[in-house]
Write a structure and sequence with these properties.
Chain A: It holds the Pfam family TPP_enzyme_M. The complex is a heterodimer of chains A (576) and B (173). Chain A is an alpha/beta fold and 576 residues long. Helix content of chain A is 37%, strand content 16%. A 6-stranded parallel β-sheet of chain A has the order 3-2-4-5-7-6, sandwiched between helices. A 6-stranded parallel β-sheet of chain A has the order 11-10-9-12-13-14, with helices on both faces. In chain A, α10 runs parallel beside α13, α11 runs antiparallel to α14 and α15 packs across α16. Classes of the chains: A alpha/beta (576), B alpha+beta (173). The complex binds thiamine diphosphate (TPP).
């Protein structure tokens, strides 16, 4: 045996006692975390004690339900593009986070979720508030860990941040047994990591880039489809350059809105189930489809049999598993979206021979624009959304819940800038919109943030009004109130012979009084006149507000690709 | 088509669950899985025998496996020169009079008898799956009391006939 070469520190001051939880907090500080969305409980008491000691290091946001907390974290992550921390306790705390974790997985949001766990000695005994977090979260996380040894904790935290925020972003869960966060440690621990199984490809293969360019040069009917991958990569500027270099038309997925300016003359509108005629027909008729950072979700493609039947498909995606998953792809490009577009932009721009195609698309745009009913009296939801756009000058951060109002927001709130649009696309999570707006407002302090919600979904997470009250966050909650689960009702009208089974909800709280109960301003609007006269001022002041807008109950979202149909088989393209 | 896929993985807790869960979630049809440690500390090897519809589904399988953080390398070794083995134990009903007869049946398979009782006998066989299948079929008429198979584990041979690697991903650098 050799004696340690290290001299023992000879200091009279008592060594500072640190626990596993302090190690965690230090790792979070190292990661430059500013905001934590968390909720305490038994298994995370040591962590909360460490947070208490680290007072001032973070802004800790305490939701009133863990689901609200994690959706807020998603809103924060989407707008800030930073990995965002969520903390929940074991058992019910962890299970309350599940919907948000699944949502973040579907929409590729970088969350780092810490869950408390019962002490290692009792794991597997059905201990009080034990749940199998690893088992439950494995299929809905990019990766997950249970910390087995205190010394692994800092390394795991660093890995978790790295994995969540690089490659295709996604949620990572770190399950920490209580004894580990409570253990006092003395020696220094390793925090470096090495992940040989995780080396995302972020640079495009130049050969494939050339192939794409060659395909573009001979295409007669090219179209670009923008997905959220462009937003995650910060590639909007590069994309605009690309589109202008080649003068190609652009459409977007739901989540890709804002990647390309909505008011640009080459933008065809959103594609997919409730996309525009011009966009869906462009996808149907194109001979070259360049998908940048989208994943060919079924709500975009409609029936795959009829999707882009004559097109050569080029797909740029950072996740190789998305390429060829749903749509056979001739030119696969595994890359960060921005880097791939940058590479394309380095090549000499060229004029395409696509005059006829551009005219056709322009005609489609002119002849088959979005349409809606009109009234000078009652509020049409589409009118309302257009007014929101107008009053916020198209500059607001808009979050939505899920349902008809979400589709109207996508259609009528033209997004001209990236990272201003926060919606639950893949999972379609009701209850998402309002808490997501809270996170978005915390991330974008000086922006106007409008949560566009249905009366149904808002009631799933509306307890988070407490956060507006507590923090004075000036979120504007716009309830598109049709006294119905509108999207369900629409499907029942169209596909179930108007059998409105449990989709009309006429009993509602008085939202104005509810707002007042939380110390907020509540408004109820029932006429076009009220919208025209009052909404502007409410949206443009620095106070939170809840605006209960009574809209026409039986409005439908059009146009629509009915389930099972192809993108060329839209209904409701023109006003009857 | 039946394919043999191997994956080297970090032997971390939960990795088996993650991989099998992924295969189930994406509706891959698994015939067998075998897992064991390798010569490298902390690295395990999984061998899957899968039945996939077509090339595209196979590519998805490989990509989805590769996507897992703890999966280090995925190979489809079906078309390579490989040695694939599985072990099976077969408990067959036998009367003492039949023992000689059974001995003669298993002999060419180089199987061994590892347990004998009054009314049964347990045979152990190692080999590729076809050989194991063949022996099982020969023993079936006597009455199979119990049967356990380990699933295939496989290696590529030290020397490969000149042939291209598993369809390389031209899309990766
Ligand atoms: C958590 C959850 N439960 C159920 C659904 C199914 N669903 C989709 S849209 C919708 C109706 C939403 O109604 P509302 O929030 O009032 O919005 P609207 O469609 O009326 O605009 C329902 C129930 C869902 N998406 N999420």
């Amino acid at each position: 045996m050799r004696a340690s070469a290290e001299p023992k520190p000879t200091t009279d001051t008592k060594p500072i006692v640190k626990t596993g939880a302090d190690l965690l907090v230090e790792a979070l500080i190292d990661q430059k975390v500013e905001t934590i969305f968390g909720y305490p409980g038994g298994a995370v008491l040591p962590i909360y004690d460490a947070l208490y000691r680290a007072e001032g290091s973070f802004d800790h946001v305490l939701p009133r339900h863990e689901q609200g907390g994690i959706h807020a974290a998603e809103g924060y992550a989407r707008v800030s593009r930073k990995p965002t921390v969520v903390i929940g306790t074991s058992g019910p705390g962890a299970t309350n986070l599940i919907t948000g974790i699944a949502d973040a997985m579907m929409d590729s949001l970088p969350l780092v979720v810490f869950t408390g766990q019962v002490a290692k000695s009792v794991i597997g005994t059905d201990a009080f508030q034990e749940s199998d977090v690893m088992g439950i979260t494995t299929p809905i996380t990019k990766h997950n860990y249970q910390v087995q040894d205190l010394e692994d904790l800092p390394r795991i935290v660093n890995e978790a941040f790295h994995i969540a925020s690089t490659g295709r972003p996604g949620p990572v869960v770190v399950d920490i047994p209580k004894d580990i966060s409570a253990t006092v440690y003395e020696k220094d621990v390793q925090s470096e990591f090495h992940l040989p199984g995780y080396q995302p490809t972020i640079k495009p293969n130049p050969l494939q880039i050339n192939k794409l360019r060659e395909a573009l040069l001979i295409a007669k009917k090219p179209v670009v489809l923008t997905g959220a991958g462009i937003l995650h990569a910060g590639g909007s500027e590069a994309l605009k350059q690309f589109v202008e270099n080649y003068d190609v038309p652009v459409t977007s997925t739901l989540l890709g809105l804002g990647a390309f300016p909505g008011d640009h003359h080459r933008f065809l509108g959103m594609a997919g189930m409730h996309g525009t005629y011009a966009a869906n027909m462009a996808l149907y008729e194109c001979d070259l489809l360049i998908n940048i950072g989208g994943r060919f979700d079924d709500r975009l493609t409609g029936n795959l049999k009829h999707f882009a039947p004559n097109a050569r498909v080029a797909h740029i995606d950072i996740d190789p598993a998305e390429i060829g998953k749903n749509v056979p792809t001739e030119i696969p490009i595994v890359s960060d979206a921005k880097r791939a577009i940058d590479k394309l932009n380095e090549l000499e721009p060229a004029a395409l021979d696509h005059q006829e195609w551009m005219e056709k698309l322009e005609n489609n745009k002119q002849n088959y624009p979005l349409w809606h009913n009109e009234s000078e009296d009652v509020i049409l939801p589409q009118y309302l959304l257009r007014k929101v756009h107008q009053f916020t000058k198209g500059e607001a951060v808009v979050t939505t819940d899920v349902g008809q109002h979400q589709m109207w927001a996508a259609q009528y709130y033209t997004f001209n800038r990236p990272d201003r649009w926060v919606t639950s696309g893949g999972l379609g999570t009701m209850g998402f919109g309002f808490p997501a707006a809270i996170g978005a407002q915390i991330a974008a302090k000086d922006s106007t943030v409008v949560a566009i919600v249905g009366d149904g979904g808002f009631q799933m997470t509306m307890q988070e009004m407490s956060l507006l009250q507590e923090r004075g966050l000036p979120v504007k909650i716009l309830i598109v109130n049709n006294q119905a689960l509108g999207m369900v009702r629409q499907w029942q009208e169209k596909f179930y012979d108007e059998r409105y089974s449990h989709s009309i909800i006429e009993t509602q709280p008085d939202f104005v009084k509810l707002a007042e109960a939380y110390g907020l301003h509540g408004y109820k609007m029932e006429s076009v006149q009220e919208i025209d006269e009052k909404l502007d001022a409410i949206l443009n002041n620095d106070k939170p507000a809840i605006i209960d807008c009574r809209v026409v109950q039986l409005e439908n979202v059009y146009p629509m690709i009915a389930p099972g149909k192809g993108s060329h088989e839209m209904i409701g393209v023109m006003k009857p | 088509m039946r394919r043999i896929i191997t994956a080297t993985v970090h032997n971390r807790s939960g990795v088996l669950n993650r991989v099998t869960g992924l295969l189930a979630k994406r509706q891959f049809n698994i015939e067998s899985i075998s897992v064991g440690r390798t010569e490298t500390e902390g690295v395990s090897k999984m061998t899957f025998v899968v039945d996939v519809e077509d090339e595209r589904k196979l590519e998805q399988l490989s990509k989805q496996l590769n996507k897992q953080i703890d999966v280090i390398k995925v190979s489809d070794i079906t078309d390579k020169q490989i040695v694939a083995r599985e072990l099976a134990m077969i408990k067959v009903l036998t009367t003492p009079q039949q023992r000689g007869e059974l001995q003669a049946i298993i002999e060419p398979f180089r199987a061994t008898i590892i347990d004998v009782s009054k009314e049964s006998m347990t045979v152990q066989i190692t080999g590729d799956s076809d050989k194991v299948d063949a022996l099982i079929e020969l023993l079936r008429p006597y009455g199979l009391k119990e049967l356990a198979r380990t699933g295939v584990t496989a290696f590529t041979r030290g020397q490969q006939r000149q042939q291209t690697e598993m369809k390389p991903y031209s899309i990766l650098n």
